[in-house]
Design a protein that fits this description.
Layout: E1 7-13, E2 19-28, H1 34-53, E3 59-66, E4 71-78, H2 81-89, H3 94-107, E5 115-124, E6 133-136, H4 140-145, E7 147-149, H5 157-162
Antiparallel strand pairs: 1-6, 1-7, 2-4, 2-5, 3-4
């Protein structure tokens, strides 16, 4: 099924176990300082391409979002916090090089105030997340982990929160996932 095709009806994410979510973004503080914020924006796109070329690095999917004309961010879904840390700290990967260059610029006072960068990372234990999608293509958590009919996890949010691998509402063995591992964008 094409990744952007709409599934009529209600589905939920086929996530099992803990879910690792990274929000990472930038804020343009001075629009005219293009030479400061454009490299940050382009570096994020290059890192997403690097992660997309090698699925073993652990990125399951991502969504690019705009919060305002100044603020852009990516919601990323990771296989594990260990893989997220490994990518962030590996000297072979682009993130390490970009972060080191940005730190050098900031220490030299060349980047202060022009562009803001931020991230938030969440490790959400099983039973502490739920998702429902109505008449949607695979999106967000469902694009990263696959999607299943909502009935397999429960019609109510309370039932979906209570779901545990191999137990809980609708657990009748391993459900077939649709679109598992597909990145969104």
């Amino acid at each position: 099924m094409p990744r952007n095709s709409v599934t009529v009806g209600r589905t939920t994410a086929n996530a099992e176990g803990e879910v690792v979510v990274l929000l990472i973004g930038m804020r343009i503080n001075r629009f005219r300082a293009v030479r400061h914020w454009l490299p940050v924006m382009l570096a994020m796109q290059r890192m997403l391409r690097e992660l997309g070329r090698d699925r073993s690095l652990g990125l399951l999917g991502h969504v690019l979002l705009t919060a305002s004309p100044r603020t852009y961010y990516v919601v990323q879904y990771w296989e594990s916090k260990e893989k997220l840390y490994a990518y962030a700290h590996s000297p072979r990967m682009l993130h390490h090089k970009v972060w080191a260059a940005l730190n050098r610029k900031q220490r030299a006072g060349k980047a202060r105030g022009h562009v803001g960068i931020w991230h938030e990372a969440y490790v959400v234990p099983e039973g502490a997340y739920e998702a429902v999608y109505a008449d949607m293509p695979a999106f967000g958590l469902a694009a990263a982990h696959g999607r299943i009919p909502v009935e397999r996890r429960g019609q109510r949010a309370k039932d979906r929160f209570a779901h545990r691998s191999g137990a809980g509402a609708g657990a009748t063995g391993a459900p077939e996932a649709e679109g598992a591992g597909a990145a969104t964008g």
